[in-house]
């Protein structure tokens, strides 16, 4: 009866099919006549405007009695999530990009980064590390830039000279010195600090001596 009331024969459709949003494929309407954009999760639906069956969606009329109208939902009432126009089932793991991995959980989703978020501090062999995008690789990588000539000239300046690169006051920051690396004898302690000419984070070391090491016992004769 519904089909006889809503479906006209012969079919009459627009010459140009509609342009659908991302994640909504072109499908035949409820009459099997014209191509329409399939409705996605949570969108209104009816006999003519069908849901995207490729995503396991059906037109749910359970909320129609409350006056809100029917909406597209999973057939087994299983919760899912929609990301970038695509619907994922509850518990499904997916990657929106090569840099993150997500999992659909109870209507939402949790993501973890796949690229390491490490921080590279300046070192004598790499005084100016910089993270850049590498063509053909997903995650950015650290590279070491060569010192500019004006930096080298500034490094030769007097110890009390102020670097012309610092156009703003340097906010000194640093961690506490670590414990000595040796329990006896000479060791070293480290800290991370900006107390340097260029006001950059760097790892600093200093020698430390807690106590002299006891003399080794004389070797027994063979």
Automatic annotation (TrEMBL):
Record gene name: Wisp2
BP-aspect Gene Ontology terms: cell adhesion; positive regulation of cell differentiation; signal transduction
UniProt entry keywords in alphabetical sequence: Disulfide bond, Secreted, Signal
Gene3D superfamilies the UniProt entry points to: Thrombospondin type-1 (TSP1) repeat
Domain IGFBP N-terminal: 1-75
Domain VWFC: 79-145
Signal peptide bounds: none
Family under the similarity heading: Belongs to the CCN family.
Entry keyword Secreted: yes
GO molecular function, one term: heparin binding
Name of the protein in question: WISP2 protein
GO cellular component: extracellular matrix; extracellular space
Entry keyword Secreted: yes
Intracellular or extracellular location(s): Secreted
InterPro entries: CCN, Growth_fac_rcpt_cys_sf, IGFBP-like, Insulin_GF-bd_Cys-rich_CS, TSP1_CCN, TSP1_rpt, TSP1_rpt_sf, VWF_dom
Chief location category: secreted
């Amino acid at each position: 009866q519904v089909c006889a009331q809503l479906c006209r024969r012969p079919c009459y459709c627009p010459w140009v099919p509609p342009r659908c949003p991302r994640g909504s494929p072109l499908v035949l309407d409820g009459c099997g006549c014209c191509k329409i954009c399939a409705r996605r999760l949570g969108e209104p639906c009816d006999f003519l405007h069908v849901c995207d069956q490729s995503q396991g969606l059906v037109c749910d009329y359970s909320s129609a009695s409350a006056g809100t109208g029917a909406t597209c939902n999973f057939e087994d009432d299983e919760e899912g999530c929609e990301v970038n126009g695509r619907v994922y089932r509850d518990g499904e793991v997916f990657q929106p990009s090569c840099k993150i991995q997500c999992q659909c959980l109870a209507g939402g989703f949790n993501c973890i980064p796949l690229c390491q978020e490490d921080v590279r501090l300046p070192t004598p062999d790499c005084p100016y590390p910089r993270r850049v995008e590498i063509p053909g690789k997903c995650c950015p990588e650290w590279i070491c830039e060569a010192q500019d000539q004006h930096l080298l000239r500034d490094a030769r300046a007097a110890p009390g000279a102020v670097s012309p690169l610092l156009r703003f006051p340097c906010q000194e920051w640093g961690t506490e010195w670590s414990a000595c690396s040796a329990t006896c004898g000479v060791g070293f302690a480290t800290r991370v600090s900006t107390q340097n000419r260029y006001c950059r984070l760097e790892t600093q070391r200093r020698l430390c001596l807690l106590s002299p090491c006891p003399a080794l016992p004389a070797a027994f004769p063979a």
